[in-house]
Design the sequence.
């Protein structure tokens, strides 16, 4: 891989996103809107409704949004022939994927920082640990979504097929990550499945930051980063120039 080529790819993607104002608005504003809506739903209800759900959603929303946008965008590059033209130049698949990961990582950082800032400063989400740690975990979750989106785009031939990976790969993780039932209370088999799903560690990390200053959050964060790197490597191995 070549650093100059990688950053050139990242710059190109960021320029494209800047020109696509609707997609950019969805990426940046949508998580904040969803968190505000959740707070509004529970504002007049007794109990810690918002504080109980907000940490998990701060992990899930960036992951889901970045997964969808990245998988569809990468597939569009391949089906339009852009990827084939790019790879005909002195650029490897690793340069392409890492450039995309950097570009969407920048967007993910902005997206997650705004969502966390709105939740903690304006929606009164209680955070026991430092707010910047919460932002780091949220960014890692969004980057994981981007990495998995890059990976699954290699197995889709149309944008509709790319979206179909959402119920196949993402919804089971949402069900088993501890959002609806605490993972310790899941049946034995389902608990074992949740232990190998990255979103479980994303939610655990968020709950650790908001509930305590438990240093175990570093272990969860390392698992998230490991999954993201593995997805990028597998994406580089399976990426095709064009859809057959």
Sequence:
């Amino acid at each position: 891989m070549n650093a100059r080529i990688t950053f050139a790819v990242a710059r190109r993607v960021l320029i494209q996103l800047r020109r696509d104002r609707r997609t950019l608005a969805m990426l940046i504003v949508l998580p904040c809107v969803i968190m505000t809506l959740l707070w509004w739903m529970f504002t007049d209800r007794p109990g810690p409704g918002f504080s109980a759900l907000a940490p998990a959603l701060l992990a899930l929303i960036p992951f889901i949004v970045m997964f969808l946008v990245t998988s569809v965008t990468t597939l569009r590059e391949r089906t339009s022939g852009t990827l084939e033209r790019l790879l005909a130049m002195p650029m490897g698949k690793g340069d392409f994927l890492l450039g995309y990961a950097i570009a969407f990582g920048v967007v993910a950082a902005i997206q997650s920082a705004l969502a966390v800032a709105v939740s903690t400063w304006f929606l009164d989400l209680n955070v026991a640990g430092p707010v910047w740690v919460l932002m780091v975990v949220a960014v890692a979750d969004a980057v994981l979504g981007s990495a998995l989106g890059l990976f699954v785009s290699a197995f889709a031939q149309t944008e509709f097929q790319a979206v179909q990976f959402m119920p196949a790969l993402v919804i089971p993780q949402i069900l088993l990550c501890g959002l609806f039932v605490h993972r310790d209370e899941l049946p034995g088999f389902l608990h074992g499945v949740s232990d190998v799903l990255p979103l479980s560690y994303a939610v655990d990390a968020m709950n650790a930051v908001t509930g305590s200053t438990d240093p175990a959050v570093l272990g969860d964060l390392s698992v998230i980063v490991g999954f993201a790197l593995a997805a990028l490597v597998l994406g580089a191995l399976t990426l095709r120039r064009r859809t057959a």
